[in-house]
Design goal:
Number of helices: 11
CATH superfamily: Carbonic anhydrase
CATH topology: Beta-carbonic Anhydrase, Chain A
Structural class: alpha/beta
Largest sheet: 5 strands, mixed
CATH class: Alpha Beta
Order of helices and strands: HHHHEHEHEHHHHHEE
Number of strands: 5
Oligomer: single chain
Strand content: 5-15%
């Protein structure tokens, strides 16, 4: 193979690529440059401001006008030493319900916990309490969702008096209060009714417990129950919106 002149050709090619990159960077739209250098908005300090930030993010998710905030190397470096999230989201393990996407947030914005059917126990409750009790996080959202498989399985097992395999039975047991409410008034779709009941039961328990209750009473914290539509991407508020 003839190799004479390859280094020179590579140099020419490298120069051309560099010139092309420079030209492309010069053609970047003003809005792109602004998005890269813009100062992020301050952390919401009140339940109302945190709730508004989340719901605005959900509106962007629904409409497809995502901003993808707080997701660049600069943000990673900023939060590397310390974090100050403005919200806690307790949601389901369902792969279609990722809070950071649903609310168009980024790195360091949210504490996120995910359990089957938003079930809670001492460890989960303690994890929810961590942000509000140690860092003044002003908002907790319990986020249920349409067509929840965990709640459907628990509903069927509890109705039939059967036992789910393995530790799935622990989920069914934790969902029993929501099932009992649903059995009294099942509505047209008992599983969906139970999903909504589970959100309300969990949010009410967190809102009134011995540790979070005082924060809620003095207005430093809001605990919101919400429902996510897989069909539309919209978050519907069920209980506890601040203000």
């Amino acid at each position: 193979m003839h190799t004479a002149g390859l280094p020179a050709r590579r140099a020419v090619l490298a120069g051309a690529l560099a010139a092309t990159a420079a030209a492309l960077s010069g053609c970047s739209s003003p809005s792109t440059a602004k998005a890269t250098t813009a100062t992020p908005p301050p952390r919401p300090a009140t339940p109302e401001a945190a709730f508004t930030r989340l719901m605005e993010g959900n509106q962007r998710w629904v409409s497809g006008t995502l901003e993808h905030p707080d997701r660049d190397p600069e943000r990673r470096e900023l939060v590397a030493e310390a974090q100050d999230p403005f919200g806690v989201v307790l949601s389901c393990i369902d792969s279609r319900v990722a809070p950071e996407l649903v609310f168009d947030t980024g790195l360091g914005d949210l504490y996120v916990l995910r359990t089957g059917g938003q079930t809670v126990g001492p460890v989960v409750t303690g994890s929810v309490e961590y942000g509000p009790m140690t860092g003044g996080t002003p908002l907790v959202v319990v986020l249920g969702h349409q067509r929840c498989g965990a709640i459907e399985a628990a509903y069927k097992a509890l109705k039939a008096g059967t036992t789910l395999p393995g530790n799935l039975q622990a989920i069914a047991k934790a969902l029993a209060p929501a099932y009992e409410l649903t059995a009294k008034s099942p509505g047209a779709d008992p599983v969906d009714t139970m999903i909504r009941n589970q959100v309300k039961v969990t949010a009410d328990e967190l809102r009134t417990n011995a540790d979070l209750g005082p924060l809620v009473k003095k207005g430093a914290l809001a605990v919101v129950g919400a429902y996510y539509s897989l069909d539309t991407g919209k978050v519907e508020v069920l209980t506890g919106p601040p203000g």
